[in-house]
C-alpha cells in the first residue's frame, strides 16, 4: 500500500513520541500522580507495560509499587507475564502474590489461584525462569511459592517442571516427576511424552531410552498424534546416525527410518521423490511385505517428518558414490514440487529456511558453488528469506575452498540485507583467515568473538595453523585492547543516553516574564495573540506536522 510522505512523517513523529512517553510518564507520575492512589486508569497502566522496554518498565513498576498505586487484577496478570517473558521470575511472582493478597477469604484465594489465566501465568513464569540455565536450582523454590499461593499443580505445570529438568540435563528428576503423575491423579498427555522424548534424543546415548521411545511410538499411534510420531522419528534418526559408521550401515539406517516413517505417515508427499536410485524406491516393497498401515489409517506428516526424510536422502546422495548429478536432480525435483504446490505439507516446509539450508550445505561441501548460489536465489524467489545460517554456510564453503574474496563478499551481502552476524559467523571467518594466514584479519575478527569462545580448543587448534605465531599473539593482544576500549566507550555512551532519556521534561512557559520600561510598572507582560489593528487569519493545522 502506498503511503504519502505526510503519513510517513506522522508515523515517524509518533515513534519518537512513543520513545519519550515512558520517561515523561515517569516524571509526571513522581511529581504529580503518585500521592493519588487511583488517579491512573487501568488502561493507562496496561499501556505502560506495552510501550516500555524491560529495563524501563522495571523502573516504572518499582515507583508505582513504592507509592502504593492501585493496580487491578488483570493489569497485574499482564505485568506478571511481562516480567516472566523477560526471565525476571522474582518480579513475576511478586505480581502474582499481589493478586493473591487481594483475596478476602481462603475460598476466594484458592479460586483465584486456580483460574485458567492465573495458572497460565504461573506456567509462563516457571518456564521462562530457565532463560538462564544456571537458574535451574530455583525451580523448586518457584514451585513451592506457587503451592503457597494455593495453586493446584495440574498436568500443565508438571509438564513445565519436566521441561526444566530436561533442559538442565537432569533426566533422573524428569522421570521421577513423570512417575509421580499417577500418584497425584494425573495422566501424562502428548506434551509430556514429547518433552521427555526430545530430552532423551538430546542425550549422548539415546539408545539407553529405546524402551521409553517405543512406548511413545505406541502412544502416538493410539492417540493419533502426528507430532509425537515425528518426535519418535527424529529420535530414531539421531540414534541410528550416531550408531552408523560404515556405508552399509548407512543403507540399513535408511531402510529402518523409512519403515518407521511408514508406520505412521502417508507416503503421498514423498512419492514424487521415489526413483531407482532413491532410498524411497523401497517404499512400495516395504508397504506390501511388512505390517504397514493402509492409506486410510495414515496420518498426515508434519513438516518436521518430511524434513527428516529429505535430509536422509540428501545425506545418502552426498555420502556415497552415486551419480554426481543425483543431488542436483533431487533439488530440482524439490523446487518443482514446491512451485506447483504439489503437497500442502511440503509447501509449508519450503517456507522454512532449514530445508533450503540443508541443500545449500550439501552443495557447499561438494564445492559446487554454482548450484549453491542457485539455492540462495531460489529462496528469495519462493519468499523464504535467507537467514544468518544460510550466509554462514555459504561463507564457510568459500573459506574452505580458499576463496577469501568470495567469502568476504558473502559477509558484505549479509550485512547489506540487515542480517547481523552471530558468534558462529565470526568463528567461520576466524578459521578461514587462519587457513589463509591472514594475521591482520584475524585480529580484526577476534574483537567480535566472545571471551569464552577465545579459549575453545577447536579454535585454538585452528589458530595454531598460522606460521607466524608471534604476530598472531600480538594481533590478539591488540584486539583485546580495542575490545576493552570499545566497551568503555559503549558504556559511557549508554550512560549518556540514559541520562538524557531520563532528564526531567522541560515545558515552555505559557506566560513569559519580561521586564519593560512602562512608567513605574515592571512585571509580567502577556504577548497578545494578534497585533493591534491587524486582520487575524486563522488556519487549522495538523498537530503532528
From TrEMBL:
Record flagged with keyword Ubl conjugation: no
Coiled coil (residue ranges): none
Xref: Gene3D superfamilies: Tetratricopeptide repeat domain
PPR repeats: 352-386, 387-421
Key words of the record: Repeat
Organism: Didymosphaeria variabile
Assembly mode: Binds to mitochondrial small subunit 15S rRNA.
Family to which the UniProt record says this protein belongs: Belongs to the CCM1 family.
PANTHER family for the chain: OS03G0856100 PROTEIN, OS12G0638900 PROTEIN
Protein name: Pentatricopeptide repeat-containing protein
Cited function: Regulates mitochondrial small subunit maturation by controlling 15S rRNA 5'-end processing. Localizes to the 5' precursor of the 15S rRNA in a position that is subsequently occupied by mS47 in the mature yeast mtSSU. Uses structure and sequence-specific RNA recognition, binding to a single-stranded region of the precursor and specifically recognizing bases -6 to -1. The exchange of Ccm1 for mS47 is coupled to the irreversible removal of precursor rRNA that is accompanied by conformational changes of the mitoribosomal proteins uS5m and mS26.
